[in-house]
Amino acid sequence: MRAGTGRVRLVAITALAALALATAACADDSTDGTSASPAASGGGSMKNGLKIAFLPKQVNNPYFTTSDNGGKTAVEEIKGTYSETGPSEASPSAQVSYINTLSQQNTDVIVVSANDKDAICGALNEARQGGAKVVTFDSDTNPTCRDLFINQATAEGIAKNQVKLISDAVGPDGGEIAILSATANATNQNTWIEMMKTELAKPEYAKLKLVDTVYGDDQDQKSFTETQALLAKHPNLKGIISPTTVGVAAAARYLSGSSYKGKVQLTGLGTPNQMRAFVKDGTVKAFALWNPADLGYLAAYAGGALASGLITGKEGDKFTAGKLGEFTVGKDATVLLGDPFTFNASNIDQFNF
Amino acid sequence: MSEAPRPSRMRAQGARVRGVLGSWDVIVLLAVVAVAVVGSLSIDGVSSPRFWRFVTLEAVPILLIALPMTLVVITGEIDLSVASVLGLSCTVLGKLWASGVTSLPLLIAACLVLGGLLGAVNGLFITGFGLPSLAVTIGTLAMYRGLAYVVLGDKAVADYPASWTTSAIKPIHGTTIPWVILVVAALAIVFGVVLHATPVGRGLYAIGNNAEAARFAGISVRLTKFWLFVATGAMSALAGVFWTLRFASARADNGTGIELAVVAAVLLGGVSIFGGRGGLLGVLAAVALLGVLRNALQLADVPANTLTIITGSLLIASVVGPNVAGRLRERLRRRRPIAPTLSHTT
Fold it and tell me: What is the residue-wise DSSP string for B94-136?
């Protein structure tokens, strides 16, 4: 009996292998005809009925829910079909599986925030060969795998914004300021800090003096104690810039519970949900980030313009993105959303991310 | 045996038919067919060749690891470090390539040796010191993943020649099915023959059923288990090579969490978590079932959260299912008047 089942199993395994080969053999490659014909329907108008899909790094993430809802508004404005899909964990391989699904569904535009700049390339290019247009936002892929990248903000824009915000908060008398950064070797942080120094050298900021840069390593506890140490070390400190969401929230928590509240100003890059309480209790007057809803909105319009044949993604191409106005494609097929968005007591309650 | 030969033979055949139909392997296999048929009829795209190509590509790494994992679980052990071995092998491949090793066979060989060594470390702790494999491999799950971050940090190595990355996903001539499935099929036959048609395979079941008895029967329990962990390590590393080339990206977090997908497939395939029971066919069918179901539901726009719930429910069904099936079979057997005395002697 035992040997019998063994033989049956063996036969069955062989049969399974044969079956796999047979399916393979009849599964002849019939590359489905490109559904979206490239022939432009006339200059200037957006095609109706485009299938535009948003593929965030992961679903159930408030930041992406906000950006994708911005995209949804835009897709409804151009009378397309909106969908949002994506993995529950932010991994490149899971994202590839969803890109494959979208290309099988003959999606016209895939708007994606990449979990890895190379790993999803093959799948995106396969989708493009099938006729889809690919727009990246928030996090770019290799430029060879997408048609456009929607850049949320430039390093220069962020530096200018942050210095302006701390200057406004500290007031006309100026004084000593410090930076609470993430890790000492974070490329983007260091670029921003360098640009802030250039900005601070301008005559209008002559009264602001950068005295220290400390690193909270993007850890809540470390950022908290670094803020504490910073204030002990520089008794005349008037303001802190923390261009990282973890840092600015930790610094705000320390300040709001200390005697420095209201005396030492704080700004940085943060999210409304983390900062709401500190804006309301007066610890922070204003902070910045880009508006994710606008980012998604712009990405959807850019994708629509690509799929309608209004633009090809080359430098200098112009298109209109609804309420946001006209945009021009820059170098490396990127479109810049604009300056960072400033959150303060008057507008913070309109945001949830 | 007082009965006439004819009825007894008929009864034996009837029992065999019932045994085959009632066996969990066949149930899972039928479920695959059912999902494929229902999917093709109701969901746009499931019948397209492209669908099967994507399903196959996704299944390859899971299959590669599930083959040795089946044998490990049959002996009553488990290896949870497989995804971390995969990740570490990816980063080492990337690091070697970045530092100037340009021969693909050499890189693959290096990864296989590395995987074998990592598996040997698991095997040594488990068989040499007699520690439980669950505890040891949870430890190495963390440790190997940590080492992967030591090798590449948060960087990715991605500049492989296009010929390598396209060859990993190249279809069999005239089809859309990737050729690597042939490698998997060949390996599946090797593992299948070893498990189901050799004394070594019978030994694995014996170890899983009663290690002490197996030892007295002359089976070298520790050595067998040791080599099984080595094989699992090497196969996980091979999956890592495929992973790196398919996604053209070596990262320290490659494959995070797929140990759960592998274990899920092995259990859904009817292998008992306590060892001693199950077979390779069921596991192969379970990998196919999970893959086809997930991709088909994804095409039907079922959200990721719902998919996770469905996979979880299937896993629970896989634990409950064979038990219920076993009890049903037991009841059927009891209905037969003379069977009990006979069946207990076999």
Answer: HHHHHTT---HHHHHHHHHHHHHHHHHHHHIIIIIS---HHHH
